[in-house]
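Changelog-adjacent note: as of this version, every example in the card shows the full chain rather than a window. The one below runs 103 residues end to end.
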Amino acid sequence: MKASNRNSKAMENVRGLSKVFTILRKLSDMNVKELSRGMITSTATIYSIEAGRRLPTVTLISRYSTYFHIPVAQLFWLAEETRSMSEIDAKKEILEALATREE
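Full-length structure tokens:
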């Protein structure tokens, strides 16, 4: 696979994760400042990740997983599933996945 294709795929995954992270924050009725305190990172980092301008580090992905009680694998699965969905449809998918997990 060419480097440009790998970069393109990585950016698609980032957009997917950024959407999932944004929706999780909104579903928790939190603003960026509150989340950044809980995640022990800056508000600028949260804004950049949610906007898809910055790749979340492995550490930050792990913190999201811990903070929202969602396994890392499920975060990536949700990112893949919701990447091409509207925010409303993605929110429904995430809520359904979380409800299924709690049963």
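Structural remarks: Helices lie at 3-27, 32-39, 43-50, 58-68, 72-82, 87-102.
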